[in-house]
Write a structure and sequence with these properties.
The chain contains nine helices and 13 strands. By secondary structure, it is α+β, with helices and mostly antiparallel strands. The protein folds into three domains: about 80 residues, Rossmann fold (3-Layer(aba) Sandwich); about 70 residues, Dna Ligase, domain 1, CATH 3.30.1490.20; about 90 residues, D-amino Acid Aminotransferase, Chain A, domain 1, CATH 3.30.470. Strands 11-10-9-12-13 form a five-stranded antiparallel β-sheet. Strands 2-1-3-4 form a four-stranded parallel β-sheet. A four-stranded antiparallel β-sheet has the order 5-8-6-7, with helices on both faces.
Length: about 290
Amino acid sequence: MLRLAVATERRTFERMRDPLGARGIDVAHLPAKERAIRLTDAPTREFDVGFVYPPRLMEGGALSALYDVPWVNGREAVLTSRNKAGVVARLSRAGLPVPETRMVSNPADESDVRDAVSGLDFPVVVKPNSTTRGVGVAKAADLDSLLGVVDYLDLVHDYRATGDKSYLIQEFLPEARDYRVMVVEGEVVGGVERRLSAAALAEGRWKHNVHRGAEAVGVDVRPEHRELAVSVAETLDIPYLGVDLLESEGRTVVSETNARPTIDDATKYEADFWDRLAALIRKTADERDGRN
């Protein structure tokens, strides 16, 4: 039986355990953070493959060395997806639709920020380059508001231990519908629309992150969204990918990607999701063993 180490949050591990177990894969949880790791002790168990590379790169490097496993979505895939600016640039170069975006690398002068927003209409969206779950994302209605947000980012980036000292300024897409499309090995395996409640909309909220209260509702992925999501995964060369799409005023753009997407309820995936995921896990293990 193939032995899989799952380095995601426990909820995803628990959702994976039984479906993959029924497909001949023994699933165990291997948390990478908020714990002590005994680096000089022999591992208490062995694994054939990991899923997916841990979000904290130092802990990920330690676990990779300790357990010597290949990963479904390895370090390079996670870094590629986490770098929002790199994703926007790569997709834009490939001719795929993305929001108009500027990257600012701190320390930057006020004149650099003014230059960055030249040609953009307010409001604009400001987001740290490598955070997830909507952390630090803000909407600035005018230049003064933007410079105020930037002041706070400057304070954070002045801390020496801050790894990524860059942020993005993007066009704001009004009344956008927000979709997450899941791709496994070049095939769409499910999708959701992230929706805000009527009360949240009445309060003027606009961010659709589930971790901030939005609801993920399973949808049938439209053909044009399927084609776009598959093209994104192929362009980034990431086999297991969540592709976030925003649809506004008759236009669809790729807002972000996630190489560590949470696995949701089975009802939000297509019937062959678990078969395709199991096949990817086996392929990853076989490639390391030279069987492919």
